[in-house]
Amino acid sequence: MEKKKILTGDRPTGKLHIGHYFGSLKKRVELQESGEYEPYILIADVQALTDNFNHPEKVRDNVREVAIDYLSVGINPEKTTIYIQSMIPEVAELTVFYSNFVTIARLQRNPTVKTEIEQKRDLFGESVTYGFLGYPVSQAADITAFEGAFVPVGEDQLPLIEQCREIVRKFNHVYGDILVEPEAVLSSGKRIKGLDGNEKMGKSLGNAIYLSDSEEVIMEKVMGAVTDPNRIKKDDLGNPDVCMVAYYHNLFTSKEDCKKVCEECRAGKRGCVACKKELAKNIIEELRPIREKRAYYEAHPELVDAILKEGTKKARNTAKATMKKIKQAMMLNYFDDTEMSV
Ligand code: TRP
User: Which stretches does DSSP call E strand in the chain?
Assistant: First the structure.
């Protein structure tokens, strides 16, 4: 039997950080290694342009960065197809077709889009672009062009998957059972807080540890992490519950050592500096294999390009096959495609 397809992706607007790692990348590698699915990962450059249309160079530069991040964490191009969204024109075509199945009011109500528009007032002012408002439609095209059955995402993406499911149901109601209705799979991963204690680690918040950070940079960032504000002197009794260093120890340090860290902190027997150094060392160790793989791919950009080219070619074939079915159902199959090629 054919394996069900998994589809996920990221906007290439910056390098990926440990929030992505725990939030989604680990899960993607796990799903890939289970061998039960056929995974696709898209680098959503067209979607990234919806709010970076005036910075094409930023999107362009980050396509390769994100691809290297994927390869470094263990996404294996032999098992997972990595492709570039803009090189699949079927996705743009489908976006146009699907726009008949979504109202402007519904897009405006989408909680994810709504929040993002609020956050991007600088860019959009009082009136958002058609492209940005409509990106959930293009995301529905991303998913359905590949007959994605499962979409592993973080919580913030759930309204987008729901919107895709609605489009699929409406489309299928009119044109027959053509599209696969996807299911969101919540990446087990928790949302990782920032070094500054912010609920979210984010590129724009300047509180992230990147998968590409050097040992020195990791050390420096950890030394600047927020600790218990009431602990001034080393022998003050600490409260690990409000300390970002303790929070990260839980992610990067063995259970046993974590317990020790917290006990010593509460008893005022462990200084913050030593505690931070130990944490930084553990983060550096955990990310070492990722950094080493990264260095390898950075030194071989031609290899990364070949992987992207190969993946995109394969993805295009899958999307073409889906498109054929869709055009037939929509009565847009006028002539034999092969005769029409110029
Ligand atoms: N919206 C996703 C993000 O901001 C990226 C994305 C684009 C995506 N197309 C997708 C995710 C399809 C899952 C499925 O990170």
Answer: 4-10, 37-43, 81-84, 148-153, 183-186
pTM, whole model, 2 decimals?
0.91
Write the pLDDT tens digit of every residue in 300-314: 999 999 999 999 999
Using the atom order of ligand 1, give the atom closest to the CA of residue 154. Answer: 15
> What would the mean pLDDT of 307-330 be, rounded to a whole number?
97
Tens-digit pLDDT profile for residues 239-271 = 999 999 999 999 999 999 999 999 999 998 888
Domains of the chain: 4-193+301-340 (3.40.50.620), 215-297 (1.10.240.10)
Tokens of 232: 């001034």
Euclidean distance between CA atoms 220 and 280, whole angstroms: 9
| 8 A C-beta contact, residue 40 and residue 80 | yes
pLDDT per residue as tens digits for the range 175-197: 999 999 999 998 766 678 999 98
Give dist(CA 222, CA 281) in Å, integer: 10
**Ligand 1, atom 14: closest residue by C-alpha:** 8
Is residue 70 within 8 A of residue 99, CB to CB? The reply is no
112 C-alpha vs ligand 1 centroid, how far in Å? Answer: 12
Q: Ligand 1 mean position to 37 CA, how many Å? A: 19
Q: How distant is the alpha carbon of residue 88 from its chain centre?
A: 19
